[in-house]
Amino acid sequence: MQTPKTHSLMIDIDEVLGEHVAAFRPYAARAVGADVEDLYDNPDWDFEAWFGDSGIDWRDVHDAAIRDGMLLIMDPRPGAVETVQELYQHYKIVICTSRTPDPVSVSDTVDWLNNHQIYYNDLLFTSDKSVVDVSWRIDDSLHQIKAFASKGQKFVIWDAPYNQVAIGPRVRSWDDVAKVFIPSSLMVVG
Ligand SMILES: [Mg+2]
Q: 1 CA distance to ligand 1 centroid (A)?
C-alpha cells in the first residue's frame, strides 16, 4: 500500500538519530578526571550520574562541548540515515530537538543533518514538542513522552533506562523503527 505523505513523523535528534551520550562522554570524563570507560553508557537524561558530587555543573561542560563542536562529531545511530531516507519517501519528516537554539547549536545541527544526508521537511527547536502537530513522534525524553501522552498524541518510545516508567510502544534500533513505520506496516500504526 502506498503511504500518503500526508502522514507526518516527528523524530528527535539526541539519542534517537545520533549518539549524543557517546559524544559527550569524553568531555565529561575530562571534566571529572575519570577514564571514558568508567562512565557507563546511559546516565540519566541530566548526566548527574556522571558528575555526582564533583561540584561541576554538567550544563557548563555540555555548553563548552557544544562550543567545541561536539554536535558535529556525534555519530548517527546505526541505520538512522538509511531508514530516514526511506521514511522520507512516505512521510513528512519533522526533525525536532529541545537543544537550546543558540547560533552554534542551530548551525551545527543543520550541518550535521546535511553532512549525514538525513532528509527532512521541517527542522524545529522547541522545549515542548507536544505543541507540534504531527501524526507520530519518536523520542527518548521522559518529559516529552509524558506530554505526548497527556494530550493523547501518538508516539513511539526510543527505549532508554531513564524512560522505563513510560507506557507505550518501544523501539530499540532503527531496524525497529523501519518495522513499525514502513508502508507495509502502516495498517498496524495508522
Ligand atoms: Mg533525545
A: 31
